[in-house]
Amino acid sequence: MSTYLQNERIRVGIKPMGAELFSIQDRKSGKEYMWRADAAFWGKTSPVLFPIVGTLRDNKYKFHGKEYSLPRHGFAREMNFELGANTDTVATFTLESSEKTLEKYPFRFRLDIGYCLEGATLVVDYHVYNAGDADMYFSLGAHPAFAVPVTEGLNYSDYYLQFNQRETAPRWRIDAAGLIEPATTPCLNNTDRLNLLKELFYKDAIVLKDLSSTLISLRHKTDPHGLEFRFHDFPYMGIWAAKDADFLCIEPWCGIADNQGHNYDFTTKEGIEKLGPKSTWTRRWSVTIF
């Protein structure tokens, strides 16, 4: 059963499968800010990427001499989370390691995802706890898909992303196998704006590294409605939409797909997080609608 949070300004819906956010509705205007999950394009709305982000080379990795396999973006998005603390404006969802997860990921963990409403803002918190007695290696990323256009009847190409810092960042290309290519192509060149075109995503996501910005706004040239997306301490950013679909994903990541020449060693994977035993790792992002 889905969980709904609401205050005087917004109403939010979360599914237990993957603790997946699927609705952010403006209670005053009735506008829905999340993608409608049309399976003809992409049937998800905001999967949680854990314990990897992106694709492993040959879908496998090695740890302490043993080989394991994980699908793209890991397994958390396809597992049921338990609902814990829950009020009108706060909900916490938990996934813990099990014999099933240990077969493909040899670490004991607890992943808590918290959702909290603050006016017109939804705050999302991740807490990863290493329940084991040795170092734990993982990646985690967000993948929320927002409806574009926000206001029905407007053109996708009249929207743009506004960064709160001027950025010079190339696009790291993704090959047909989902791996990061060694070469880049120009993307942001001393600018704080990216004009949206559906053709931008015909060759998978725009992958950016080490942005200076901590705020990306989705805006329209003339319509006043959009959103502000805030994030901190995520070294990678994915921007993506399925081909010709009416949405945009803004994806802060702590982790990235393998590069084409990676040697399968999980501990040396680019972007991997290392967490000591009985320790907790936290990250946060938020979205404000307007």
Task: Give the tags.
290 residues; mainly beta; Beta-galactosidase, Chain A, domain 5; 1 helix; globular
Quick rundown:
The chain has 290 residues and is mainly β. It has one helix and 21 strands.
Protein model, in words:
By secondary structure, the chain is mainly β. It has one domain: Distorted Sandwich (Beta-galactosidase, Chain A, domain 5), CATH 2.70.98.10. It has one helix spanning 99-102; strands spanning 3-6, 10-15, 20-26, 60-63, 66-69, 82-86, 90-96, 109-118, 121-130, 136-138, 140-141, 145-147, 159-174, 180-195, 206-209, 215-220, 227-231, 236-240, 247-254, 273-275, 280-289. The strands form five sheets. The chain has a nine-stranded antiparallel beta sheet with strand order 6-7-8-9-21-17-16-13-14, with no helix packed on it. Strands 11, 12, 15, 18 and 19 form a five-stranded antiparallel beta sheet that branches. Strands 1-2-3 form a three-stranded antiparallel beta sheet, with no helix packed on it. The chain is globular, with a radius of gyration of 19 Å.
